[in-house]
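Can anyone check this?
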Amino acid sequence: MSIRVSHLNKRFGNFVAVDDGSLEVESGELVAFLGPSGCGKSTILRIIAGLETADSGSVYCAGQAADHPHTRARGVGFVFQHYALFRHMTVAENIAFGLRVQGKNRAEQSRRWLNCWT
């Protein structure tokens, strides 16, 4: 899936987290965000994933405006900086959680989880 971010702006009070940020990621491309703490990396990812709203600017996922769809409909996720595991779940259940949220049945979850290890 391609992702395009155009002229993104986000403030938290007087703190400017993102100032006119733009980015294009083509389908299949691998990208790493590097920079010091507080430079806006996580904020941009949270906006793309729908976990945070931008003050202005636009986000497109697979060519579709991602301003209004439900967060799950975007099909975007990322690995958190700090551990974000569910303590009451097994390793397999934590790994398969995203598949469960997408509505995949247990057989499909198991098939995909096992495929990661073979």
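Reply from J.R.: I decoded it. Helices lie at 41-49, 91-101, 106-116.
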